[in-house]
Each structure stands twice: as structure tokens, then as C-alpha cells.
Design a protein that fits this description.
Blueprint (H helix, E strand, L loop, with lengths): L7 H9 L3 H6 L1 E7 L2 E6 L14 H17 L6 E12 L7 E10 L4 E12 L2 E16 L2
Antiparallel strand pairs: 1-2, 2-4, 3-6, 4-5, 5-6
InterPro entries: HotDog_dom_sf, PAAI_dom, Thioestr_dom
GO molecular function, one term: fatty acyl-CoA hydrolase activity
Keywords: Hydrolase
Length: about 140
């Protein structure tokens, strides 16, 4: 997959830095390129549920955000994306020193993109798949 313009990274980072929920949850950009986006999060007490696992809502938000930015990295300068549907499978309790998300575009279309996010827990250097999401996004012209 190929970015549609040279300064796409600047546009993507500027948009990510305006994501209030990402900031609230402590989600940070790890790395990205055309059609893929990697994020990380160090779990804080504020995002844990009553069993001290990372709350499913935080995992879903991380998966949605990462998939959205994977798609956004392929947009033109005058296009945005909006999530229109997502499904997440929670595969194991999310407990760890760090949470990682690896998102990629599966199918870029003219108006609809489909992305996938895999969310991992990391404990003592061991990475385990905790959740998997499929995200459908709508391309929106901003003209």
C-alpha cells in the first residue's frame, strides 16, 4: 500500500495528537506507515475494571483508534475516515506491563475500508494475543 502524498506522516501525527480519548487512556503511537499503525499503552489504575484487568472498553477504543489511523494513513490530504462498524473478540483477560496494538488495512476501497487490529498483552517480555477487532471505515471528503 502507498501513501497518497509525501507529508502524510505529519497529517497523521497531527490528527492523532488531537485524540482526547487516546490521551486519556494513555495510548501512544509506536510506529506507522502506509496502511498500518502500531500503538502502545501502559495500563494505569484508571482503565482497570473490578478484577484488575484492562477494561474491554479501553481495549476496544485502542483497536478502533489504531485501525482508523491505519486507514487514515492512506487518505488524500482532503479525506478523513469515520468508523461505521466494528467487532471485537476478547480472547483473554488483558493483564500486563504493556498493551500493544497492531493494526493494518485489509481492504482499501473507494468509499469503504476494512481494517484489522490485534491487541496484545506483554508480561516479562512475553506477548500474548488478548483481542482481535475488525473495523469498517467510511471515507469522508472534507471539501
Amino acid at each position: 500500500m502507498k501513501a497518497q502524498f509525501a507529508d502524510y506522516k505529519e497529517k497523521v501525527l497531527q490528527s492523532f495528537n488531537h485524540q482526547g480519548l487516546a490521551h486519556t487512556l494513555g495510548i501512544e503511537v509506536e510506529d506507522f506507515g502506509p496502511g498500518w499503525f502500531h500503538t502502545k499503552m501502559i495500563p494505569s489504575q484508571q482503565i482497570l475494571q473490578h478484577h484488575n484487568y484492562v477494561h474491554a472498553g479501553a481495549l476496544a477504543s485502542m483497536a478502533d483508534l489504531s485501525s482508523g489511523f491505519a486507514a487514515y494513513s492512506l487518505m488524500s490530504e482532503k479525506e478523513e475516515v469515520l468508523t461505521v462498524e466494528f467487532k471485537i473478540n476478547l480472547l483473554r483477560p488483558a493483564v500486563g506491563e504493556m498493551i500493544l496494538c497492531r493494526a493494518k488495512v485489509l481492504k482499501p476501497g473507494k468509499r469503504i475500508y476494512v481494517s484489522e487490529s490485534e491487541v496484545f498483552t506483554v508480561n516479562e517480555g512475553i506477548k500474548k494475543l488478548a483481542a482481535k477487532a475488525t473495523v469498517t471505515l467510511l471515507v469522508v471528503d472534507m471539501d
